[in-house]
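Title: [Solved] Sulfite oxidase 3D structure

Original question kept below for reference.
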Amino acid sequence: MDESSRRRFLALAGGGGLVAALGCRASGARSELVKPLPDALFIRHGAHNAETRLESLSPGQLVTPNDRFYVRNHGPTPRLSAAGWRLEIHGDAVARPVSLTYDELVTLPSRTITRYLECAGNGRAFFAELLGFAADGDPWRDGAYGVATWTGVPLARLLGLAGLRDGAAWVMPVGLDGDGYARPLPLAKAMMEDTILAYRMNGGPLPMDHGFPARVVVPGWIGAASVKWVGALEVSTREPMVPANTEDYVLLGADYPRPPPVLTTQVIRSAVCMPWPGLLPAGRRTIYGLAWSPFGAIARVEVSLDGGHNFTRVARLIGDDLPVAGTWWQLELEAPPGELSITPRAVDEHGHTQPPLSQQRLNDKGYLFAAPVPHPIRFV
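Solution (posted by the thread starter after getting help):
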């Protein structure tokens, strides 16, 4: 979609809800995000982003409550109404354009999935802290990760309503935010049964900050692929060239070719769910954490107590262990007074594991940090 087409689309598809939202943002009458972001639950990164404090979550409860789910926005949250919203399915690779209201969308056969979302920059802070490499962007640690139960219509069913022409190869969800954020998907990924246009999150309507009225959920891929506030699905024979796949969510750096590789699948990761650094009374303690993989369920979490040199302990997995969602783990520890680091390393059911720090590739934007992270704790 070229710039002039996008401006026309935003003007036509957004309706009064989008115009009102833009007007409110311009006047400064509303805050840039909607839900409360108390310091006890979130670390703020600028005006539009909030990292979940993982220590605020309940061990064993895999699904992240909406009020604690991280926020990663490219701008202010648009205030859209269901009544004024439409989904336009169009492009040179559809047989017939389709326009759906919100009421029509929610009556279509739906699917409910439990999957995680994670920002591509989750772990960016560790490039500097562990490798001495100053990457561009907000210094997320581990909290740009959350699991939700999503309900929506598979993209395959929506595309079937429009009919696909021979040569259809790309599907680009386009958002109704101020810049019309868009990110194309290969048709094969869009047609997977768990790639959905979600309109419910954890049993209720999508919160505004998380994409109301509807957002794409693309399991296993970077969060930037799960476009929020979707107003259109553009189907094409050629890959659309937009900032999200040419400039923003690509791997830049000395080790990467030009044009740069486009980010798609996430990486397997784990985290200790404690403040950074941790502070605990000495003695027998239970340490909790999370582990997740874009490829399947977690098989085990190995733990090092010497800074990641030797992984001699195996944590116990607790609660649900769901593919492309994650699991909680716990470790019983007898800790004397002093300093200690706890380094988890996840292994999934297919044998994928976190690479050693020596194999973590650098990139200018600090994407896809996957190495095990020593979490510092002082026992007193």
